């Protein structure tokens, strides 16, 4: 009779083979309780997410194990943050978006926060940034921000991380978070219901939409220090608070924009106040 280690090793090989039929036959023939294979060094769901390309195998494991929740962390020693992995975070990090969709459908939360210590509250963006820039690219950012990530979690520090790791990272944030599909649907409802908006009402709606992401003085200062003028222009165009820079700072920036012949930035600055 195979030991628990034998069963685990055989299941690992079957998962890696991406053959659901063989996996099911082995489980049924040997009466394997998949959840019992977990130990302090092995989590069957996270292993399957990271080591197979079959959505059906992951779904089978979820159905067989009957997890109380998919929002949990597992301590390990491989690529992770402070030794911890989360099923959905692993799927997104590996760009296995079909599996990520399945996990979300089964209850995994894109806004799950990894509370390791009292002073650390790690969301998926923090997590991916810290495990390495290779897990923080355009496709991953698009996935996160198009799946209802709570943008109120974006701190000044996190905004800086975006522009330092990926040049178009900030554009992705604003494109998928401000004036998104929900906003467009809302505006279409006004149009279809023939509800005219005054200029002041429209201005209020737009300002309220832009306020979803907080852009403070520190964001501008860091972009200025790094001479990231395209980033500053992005901030200008999406900033709901027109008091983050004083007149002197705007004038100083205007001088630099003129010096570098950056017409678009000059235009954004002149429209700022």
From TrEMBL:
InterPro entries: Ankyrin_rpt-contain_sf
Protein name: Ankyrin
Annotated organism of origin: Piromyces finnis
């Amino acid at each position: 009779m195979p030991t628990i280690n034998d069963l685990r090793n055989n299941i690992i090989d079957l998962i890696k083979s991406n053959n659901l039929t063989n996996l099911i036959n082995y489980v049924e023939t040997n009466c394997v309780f998949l959840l019992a294979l977990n130990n302090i060094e092995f989590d069957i769901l996270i292993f399957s997410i990271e080591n197979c390309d079959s959505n059906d195998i992951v779904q089978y494991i979820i159905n067989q194990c009957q997890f109380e929740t998919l929002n949990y962390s597992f301590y390990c020693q491989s690529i992770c943050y402070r030794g911890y992995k989360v099923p959905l975070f692993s799927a997104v990090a590996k760009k296995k978006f079909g599996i990520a969709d399945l996990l979300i459908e089964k209850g995994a939360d894109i806004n799950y926060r990894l509370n390791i210590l009292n002073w650390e509250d790690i969301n998926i963006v923090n997590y991916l940034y810290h495990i390495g820039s290779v897990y923080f690219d355009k496709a991953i950012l698009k996935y996160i921000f198009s799946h209802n990530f709570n943008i109120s979690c974006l701190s000044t520090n996190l905004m800086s991380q975006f522009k330092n790791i990926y040049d178009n990272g900030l554009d992705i944030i604003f494109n998928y978070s401000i004036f998104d599909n929900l906003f467009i649907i809302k505006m279409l409802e006004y149009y279809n219901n023939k509800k005219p908006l005054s200029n002041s009402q429209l201005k209020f709606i737009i300002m309220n939409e832009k306020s979803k992401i907080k852009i403070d003085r520190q964001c501008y200062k860091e972009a200025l220090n790094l001479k990231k003028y395209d980033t500053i222009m992005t901030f200008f165009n999406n900033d709901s608070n027109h008091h983050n820079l004083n007149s002197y700072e705007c004038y100083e920036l205007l001088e630099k924009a003129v010096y570098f012949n950056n017409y678009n930035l000059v235009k954004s600055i002149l429209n700022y106040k």
